[in-house]
Amino acid sequence: MRWLGIVIGAAFLLYPWLVTDDFYARTGADVLLAAIGASAWNILGGYAGQISVGHAMFFGIGAYLPLLAYSHMGLPPVAGVPLAIVISLGFAIVVGLPTFRLHGHYFSMATIAVAELVRIVIGNWDFVGAATGLMGPAVSRTWLDLSFRSPIPYYYLFLAVLAGLLLLTWHLQRSRMGYYWRAIRAGERPARSLGVRVARYKLYALLLSAAFTSLAGSLYSLMVGFIDPESGFGILRSVEMIIIAALGGAGTLFGPLLGAVLLIPLQTVTNSLFGGGGSGLTYIIYGGIIVVLARFEPGGLLDLWRRASQWWSRRRETVTVRHAA
Amino acid sequence: MKRLLVASILALFASAAAAENVKVGALYPLSGNAASAGAQTKAAIELAVEIINGQHPDVKGMPGTGLPGLNGGKIEVTFADHQGNPSTGQSQALRLIQQDKVTALIGAYQSSVTFASTAVAERYGIPFVVGDSVAANITGRGFKYVFRVTPVATDFAYNYLDFLKDVAATGQPVKNLAIVYENTDYGTSIADTLRKVIKERGFELTADIPYNANTTDVSSQVLQLKDKKPDAVIFVSYTADTILYMRTLKQLDYRPPVVIGDDSGFSDPAFIKNVGTISQGAVNRSAWDIGKPGSVTAKINELFKAKTGFDLDDTSGRNMQAMFVLADAINRAGSGKSDAIRDALKVTDLKPDQLMMGYKGVKFDDTGQNTLAATYLIQLQGDQYVAVWPARSATAKLQIPYKGW
Amino acid sequence: MTFIQVIAGGLLLGAVYALFSSGLTLIWGMMNVINFAHGEFVMIGMYLAFLIVTYLHGGPLAFGPAATAFLFLLGIIVYYSLIRHVIRGPMLAQILSTFGLALFLRYLAFFIFSANFKTLPEDLLPGVLNIGGILIGVPQLVAGIVAIVLTVGLHLLLTRTAVGSQLLAVAEDRQAAMLMGIRPDRMQAIAWGLSGAGAGIAGALIATFYYISPTVGESLVLTGFVVVALGGFGSVPGALVAGLVVGVIQSLSAYRFGPVNKDVVVYALFVLILWVRPEGLFGKAGA
After folding, report:
1. What is the CATH number of domain B2-151+293-374?
2. Substitution target from A42, A291, A302 for chain C, most C beta carbons within 10 A
3. Which value does ipTM take for this structure?
4. Interface contact C111-A295, CB threshold 8 A
5. Distant-in-sequence, close-in-space partners of C41: CB < 8 Å, separation ≥ 6
6. What pLDDT is recorded for position C287?
7. Residues in chain C within 8 Å Cβ distance of B247
8. What is the reported pTM?
């Protein structure tokens, strides 16, 4: 198992040097960015089991603040990142407290509605660029603008953030907090009767999740250098996080990463192969694959991996047993 | 003898090397909400490339046709679908640049994607010709590789009000105006300039109605108009909403005296096909006019119709024009090198008779904006649009007031 | 006068929302599945109407039942081939599968019909009624009335017939229903069929006054979610009332506060109601 981890880790570290051009490097960066977003969502949606379909609001806040700092004050976009996180946390508290009283689909629906509200308001607010959106510095003024020609610096920036996020998640999942989250996911009433302070731990999960989703948004706008209401706050942004996490395996450490590694290249490759034809084949294939995976692997692909490795170790055991006999 | 042979072989090699094809990447929304416009544009660009590569010798006068400057080289165009997503636009631009080795780009319909993908082109030093995105600040960002052929919002606003002034001169009262516009960058950027110009020219704005695109129902907007009774209404709408507006006008039995549509939805071939019979007399902005039978534009339209079953519309036409502008630059550059194409674009100087669109010419300023871009106003009469304004390019008489159904 | 006109328009629109949403709420309440592809079912109903009008020269009496029957079948097929397998899995798998299905169907239509907008000819249900100065399009009126009749019919089907009570029994307690000899699988398939049929007829009705495009379902489905949650998951009468309420609110707020703000008002109201009354207007407490 350990050698596998090392190989995969090394592959991520070396990837930009293994591929031949910037397009692949950019796709790699897109994968990591999607993995950060999905992993951040996973803290609340996967571990704590609160299926938010409104995480785009945090992503959008994260994406807007850096470009606001640039376009209104001429600051390097990166200066807006901490403020974005603070605002996202404030937002999480204001929205989260009343919304957490809702359960299951009601919670999901309320989060959709709040995110859509925010999207519409942003789209009509001239200070934040209204419907047109905001631009970043197209040509770097100083290196602080983090506006690079090559996608490789972004790739490593994203990799570092993702590693930090996964490390933190790993730590939390083994802590008391992770245990409480799993208890809440299994059922709030039993969790409460076990003495878990449900409201508090749900809020902790939301805060962490919001902060990192906001960071994902900031990283997006640092790389793309442009944001508008649809690409920041659109419902597809929320759905993408969910799909990626669910596909890989929600509530698992590496599920979102696995989902991103499969889904983003799938999207990019089908689009590159068929998109130019303009016949819609891209989404027929993409949608079809999502359906098939959900149908045959409802627990996510990591589940398949787990079963496969169990099968493998059982087989090895029987082989060893037979040898011993 | 031997020397001659060697020389001729060398010459053969030289010409073979010179006859290299030039690869152009085209970024358009081929899926998603704008896919209908994207598909038309794709067909138009394909047709432009066929004409440029000399497959339709009966279409004469377009610049760059046959590409003599390339010594037999051709233009190859590769399409990519950006899905209306700025990030996808960037990554597909990268793919075209790095994998398909295109040396020039054209695109990208939605202004949001144009913003994002021109930044990539700029960083890689690839000239990007913008055919139809109208948001003001696409040019003026200090980019050296972005060239925009289309007129922008300010141009349209002045056109409309000049037109309305001429209408007022005929005795039709035109004082109180209404603008109804969809609420993304396209609609708001045009509405913003309209508002300014309306005030500047001494007209009244009696109704200012923004709405969300792809809305399920537009009857409240129409009822507001019906209450305010403006002398003219300007719609800035995409296709879906345009269809709904025209049907709702009829359903609520309201005929504004003058109906002006700002291109987009009114120019989509689906507009005439689906609601043409109930939108008689709608005035539309267009730099495209089919023209008299036998004219170059009429021939282009014939070819387009044979290919798609639709008449060519303004949106596709402006992109097609952009392709000709790019071809002209490639031809003059005599090579597929990005910097050479860029330098050639910079000194572009096309006259009206070298254009398929009704611009006064193509000449780029320092920001890359075409300073000679202009537009006609056309009116739906029967089953097609005819040019009605300005008087010098009119092919039919303006019919006022709006007839509808 | 205009005020009444606005309300009339809102009610007619709301009736169609109600029909569209009643199928959504049925399966949502019954088996706790959100169908993201419900808007695409409507879209298919619209294209069926288009095909029948264009190639078979049929009218509303032909394409209405045809769309209903076809979507009923499609609902059952989707249930047996997909939903049955994810229904007891995690909620996320359900979101994933129906979302993927939505994309698949949307772009299948795109592939077949291209992205060009289509409409049905004006003369299918021609005319505008003038009732004391209130103008109501015949297609909208027909759609509104049929939608209300069908929604009420669905409610009666659920509450007054054997099949209906079996359906509700499965929704209430799957195990107990099985012990009583009801086959939950078959009942759930029927629920999907009914849900699809509702979407199909809604599509056929809307097609008479709306445009048809592959992405048309997208703009409907969010409104459907709001209606379902507002009315209470699983409650058909709830969907009916909530649909009408949402239709009227949209029209009124579009007229009063500007069209841009109509969804702001709807969403804000929705969030407020959820916060105050989490089970929806007609839902069972503790749901």
Report:
1. 3.40.50.2300
2. A291
3. 0.88
4. no
5. C23, C35, C71, C74, C75, C105, C195, C196, C199, C200, C203, C217
6. 35
7. 119, 209
8. 0.90
